[in-house]
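FW: tagging you since you asked about this chain on Friday. Here's the raw sequence from the shared folder, copied in full. Didn't touch anything.
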Amino acid sequence: MTEHAWTSVDEYLNDRLVERDPALDAAQADSAAAGLPAIAVAPNQGKLLNLLARLRGARRILEVGTLGGYSAIWMGRALPPDGRLITLEVDPKHAQVAEKNLARAGLRDKVEIRIGPALETLARLAAEKQPPFDLTFIDADKQNNANYFDAALKMSRPGSLILIDNVVRQGAVTDARSSDPAIVGTRKLFDRLREEPRVDATAIQTVGVKGWDGLAMALVTG
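HL: got it, structure written out here
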């Protein structure tokens, strides 16, 4: 199997199962026009986030890593009328693009973008004693994956779901000798998931238009 075949399958799945949506299409186009990196989730992955949020009955969602707001649109649309999504973005330019995309999608009143280094913003959220989040999606700098997980866990409750994207790194996650910060950070995350008694976790490999990667999922149990 080649990446071309993976991409063809993703295109087939998206054509059959992911409805075309003007706001989502525009979010992708505007992000590309603004020069944002092409690292947003794929459409079928975005719909997976939406379905998981709906299955969880999420009323409060936390996202670490906004980029152009594409994944935030998918998750924000899963919220009930009084739901809330807080998304964290370090780059003001990215946040500006995301704000426009979220407003076009009709989510201005449900989604709040907080700008700044995520570890600092997460600490401020904790200090504000925000109500627990039902779902957290972590998709930011990978060297801090374990730190983001720890912060999310503190703001979760039993039954909350924590998702971490890009955890396979084209298979390089198995390289214990790697000095790549993204690999080191992701391996630290898996060590934390294995050792943490308050979660039940798994991970899956994925292939497709985004290449070879994976998603980790942790259910907060205590």
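FW: The domain at 3-220 is CATH 3.40.50.150 (Rossmann fold).
HL: agreed, and Residues 194 and 205 are 17 Å apart (CA to CA).
FW: great, closing this out.
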